[in-house]
């Protein structure tokens, strides 16, 4: 009986043995594709007063969520203008009630890092959280 129990546990151990995760199974950062616009910043949904020269990112309400403050507050974001290749970095400090599910609203400073001027109004972007 003891030998049968030992065989059972040996088989169970061999079956449950940990194995490494294949390299292609590692999760990649989620990249969003959408549009970026700009707005005049102020008191953000993360609870702090912002000015147009701050690198403010407002994310869609669907991502921001209902918690206060949002778990995404103060997260760094990398944004790429897909039309010209320019890259900018900002911080989530607000929510965007009018944004589509992958769109961003940016401070003027941040928008101008991606576009030649504010007259462009809207730029195509991809973006992701840095961590």
From TrEMBL:
Signal peptide positions (record): 1-18
Keyword Signal among record annotations: yes
Keywords: Signal
The protein's name in its UniProt record: RlpA-like protein double-psi beta-barrel domain-containing protein
């Amino acid at each position: 009986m003891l030998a049968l129990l030992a065989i059972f546990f040996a088989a169970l151990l061999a079956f449950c043995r940990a194995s490494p995760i294949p390299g292609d199974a590692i999760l990649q950062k989620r990249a969003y594709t959408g549009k970026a616009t700009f707005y005049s910043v102020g008191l953000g949904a993360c609870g702090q007063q912002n000015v147009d020269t701050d690198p403010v990112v407002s994310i869609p309400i669907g991502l921001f969520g209902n918690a206060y403050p949002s778990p995404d507050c103060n997260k760094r974001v990398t944004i790429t203008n897909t039309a010209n290749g320019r890259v900018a970095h900002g911080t989530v400090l607000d929510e965007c009630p009018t944004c589509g599910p992958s769109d961003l609203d940016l401070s003027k400073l941040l928008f101008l890092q991606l576009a030649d001027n504010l007259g462009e109004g809207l730029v195509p972007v991809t973006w992701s959280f840095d961590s």
